[in-house]
Every structure is written in structure tokens, then in C-alpha cells.
Amino acid sequence: MSLTRRDALARLSALLAIPLVRWPERLADPLGGTIVEYQAGRARRDWTAAEVTALALERCSVRGGTLHAIDQLSSIALDEARASDTRARRGTLRGPLDGVPVFAKAIYDMHGLPTTASNTEWARLFPAPVRRDAVEVGRMRAAGAIVLGKTVADDFAYHGNGTSSLSGQVRNPYDPTGTRTPGGSSAGSAVAVACGMAFAALGTDDGGSNRIPAQFCGVVGMKPTFGLVPRTGVIPTWPYLDTHGPLARTVADAALLLDAIAGPDAMDGLTLVAPWTQGRLAALREDALVNARLGLVDAHVPRAQMTAQSLAVFDRAIADLGSAGARVESCAPAVTRANVRDLFAEAARARGDVTPNATSPAATANALLRYFAAQGGDARRDVERGLAAYQHYYDVLPREWEAMARLIDQPYERDAAGVSFARSRATVVAQLAETFRAQRLDAMIYPTMPFVAPRAVDPWPDVRTTLGYGNWLGLPEVSVPSGIGSDGMPAGNISFVGLPGSDARLLALAHAYERRSRRFVAPSSS
What we know:
It is a single chain. The protein has a domain at 5-290 and 445-517: Amidase signature (AS) domain (Amidase signature (AS) enzymes, Alpha-Beta Complex), CATH 3.90.1300.10. It contains 17 helices and 13 strands. The protein has helices at residues 5-16, 35-44, 49-66, 77-90, 120-125, 135-142, 187-194, 211-216, 251-261, 308-323, 340-351, 361-373, 379-391, 401-405, 416-439, 467-473, 503-517; strands at 70-73, 101-105, 146-151, 163-164, 168-169, 200-205, 220-223, 243-248, 293-297, 327-331, 443-447, 477-481, 493-497. Strands 1-3-2-6-8-7-12-13-11-9-10 form an eleven-stranded mixed β-sheet, sandwiched between helices. α11 crosses α15 (416-439) and α12 packs across α13 (379-391). The mean pLDDT is 96.
């Protein structure tokens, strides 16, 4: 029995938990729109998940290879897509991500594929396919998403340039010369979504690894509240900084992916313990900026060092916010990029605590042991085997196994330097919260980064950014494209930043800005 247009719209609205009032228009490219538009096309029978997944895999093989964006492709993606189509015919889709092509980053475990870490030596040492999914990958599958495979990152997600010893330099899809960096470390994830190979992708962020490629590739990147998303089944970085989140072309799509992967996990002792109710991020309103109070943090806008074009794009974003009904006010918070580290140290001294250390060697060593232990093999042997390759990047770790072995057994949740860091974080965030209360702020705003993508082989401009500020404080941040420059390259992103736990509010504000400004422009496919 065929559905009427009204019945199909009602079913689509229920599936997405969004009050749709009109039928999304048909698109020429099923991978070129939003998840809502894609699901509307499926409901109309314009295409099936299997057809779109085949198209996505073809793009990954052709353009993904040219751009060095794809680490590995799944051999079961088409089977998963056909299973989603069967659920669609039966009216039993699991939710808005069911049948949606997505990616994860190369440091994520994915059943049936080796975990390369985008590193030549690690891929040689650990060539066998793993037999588990990372928690986030498993949650995407449980939501019905089609996990196409894994994207290229910087080696071990350590740098911000998109340079992999295994796959080569990831190319920025907006740059016809092939010389500009896409940013990193979640480089391939940003490139894949920008180019319509997938709707969204998982990335990680210890000091900008989602937000840097979001800006340089002109897409949405989110660093959620620290601890909202578990890290189990992912090659570890710094346990007290590492934050996982989505990259997507739109805020709404990023929100749908975050909604699926958020929530506590007993294996990750630093995740938030509050239960997560799925669906709370799905309903985003276009009028969310009306009467919103946004603090423009002048200390985070280095105007004297920004180019005229970068400044013009940022100032236009501020004007767009005002025209959408927001109240944008100059803000001088108690905690800024310039003083945040001093405030952490002061808080520790006041407690009589040990020096806080966000990159404590013992915490990372234990996280690496636990990563291998969960795979079911000889974890200590695997850590020893991989130590030289890993330590080459995470060089705070000892080079010798005897010294490493003394670090790895203490759970990172009890590491003295890490615990001191977490205590200082709570104290300093409370100071920042005073600014929010005093000015009745919904969010702070500033440029995600104050410069455009440089050439991959060049040093970055000597301009300080706020990237580490957000990680140290564990703040949620949504980075949204604010325009394309005269050279055709993404000219900047604006960040919406809030107190821990304000993820839903930030996504709503960012969505309203995005809908008002409409600054995303897809890269040329030529």
C-alpha cells in the first residue's frame, strides 16, 4: 500500500523527531543535502540506501583516493545498506541515522578492519583486523548508520596538518593547487563530509583536531562537553583532554550524530555518568538566536594579526547574528586564553595539590594498556611491541619498556597529576561561570581560528588561538562556516562556546546562525 504525501511526511517527522511542516525538495545529488533531505528521498522512493551507499563508495574510491582522505573502506557497507532498506520497507527504521552513510577516523577500532592509526609502522606491527567496534562505532551501527570505513588522520592523531606517514598528505578539496592543508588531525573526516562522500564523520579533539579541519575545510566541527562521548576502543591520546565529536556539513546533521554516540560508558572512567536520553538534540529551531545573549570575547579576536578578509568575514558573521535577533555584547571573561594555565596552577597551589598535568605520561600509558586489554590479547606485550612507534609522537612517554612498564598499571582515573588537573578545571570553570551569570550569557563567540589554511609544508602563522583553551576547560564548542574567500578557500569559522553541559543550547544557536547566513559552499568536484 502506497503512502499519501501527508502520511509520508508524518512518518518522516516521527522518524527524525522534528516537526516538519513541508516536504523537503528533491535533490539531484542524494549525498549533497542534509540527512533530513536524504531520508525524505528514501520515503519518496527517489533512491535506496543501497544505491546511495554504492555512490558514496564510488566517490571514496575515486575522489577520496585523489585527496588521500580514506584510510580503509568497509566490505560490509552495502550489506548494511540493504538491511536498512529492508527495515524501511517494513516500517521499522531505527531512527534518523538508519541507512545514513558515515565515517570514523583511522584511530577507531572497527570490526573486520585493522586499526592503522594512519601510521606506517603501527600498520605493519598490527596488521590483523580487530574483532570489535569502538563504542562510538557500535552506537552508530546500533542507530542503523552505514559505516563506510575509516578516514585518514595525522599519525596517531597527534598533529594538525593532515599528514600521514601511511597515506600521505591529505589534500584540501577547495585548493586546486593541492598545496594547502585541510587541517588535522581529523583531516580525512572533514574532507569526506565536505565532498559529499558521507553525511557526517567521527573525529577527535585534544587541542583542535576537529575544529582545525572544520575551519580549513569549511564544515561544521564540534567539540562536545568533556566526558559526554566515551573513548573506549580508540587509540588513546591524552585522557584528560581528549574529546570526541562529529564533523558534518550542517549543524543539524552534527547534532544527529552526537545524539547517537553520547552517553556514559563504564570502560571510560572519565565520561559523564548521567544517563543520556536520545532525541534531546534533534529538534533545532531557526529562531533560537532571538533575544540570545552572546559574549564577543575581544581577547580571543586578534584583530591586529588577522587579514582584512578574515576580519571582514568574522564581522559579517557578527552582523548575521544581530540580524537574526541576538544581542552581541563585548565580553571580558574572568578566564581567557591568556590566563587559563596560570589559573589552573594557582588553583592547585591553593589546594596544596601536585602540579596539574593535562598530558601526564602515566595517564596515557595506562590508557594504552587498557586499549589493548579490551581487544582480548596480551596487552602488555602489545604495548611493548608498539611503544617505539607510539612514543615517537607521544614523546612524554619513556622510550624504554622497563620505565614504561612501571607507569601502565595505575588507572588513569587515579593519576595524581591528572586528578589535580581535573580539580583545577572544576575551579576555573566555576570562575568562568561567574562571567556567564554576571552578563546573563547564553554563549561566547569568537573566530575558531584567526587565519586561513596555510600551505601544508609551511609553518603556521605565529598567532595564538583558543583551541587549547576549550580543551583545558572541557567546554563544548560548535564551529560553523562563516564564508568563502575571494580565492575560493574557506575564509573562517565562528565558534559558539558555552559552559559544560550546554551542548544542546550551543547547537541550537549555531543552527540558527547557519540557517540565517547559509555560508557553506561545497568544494568543486573537478
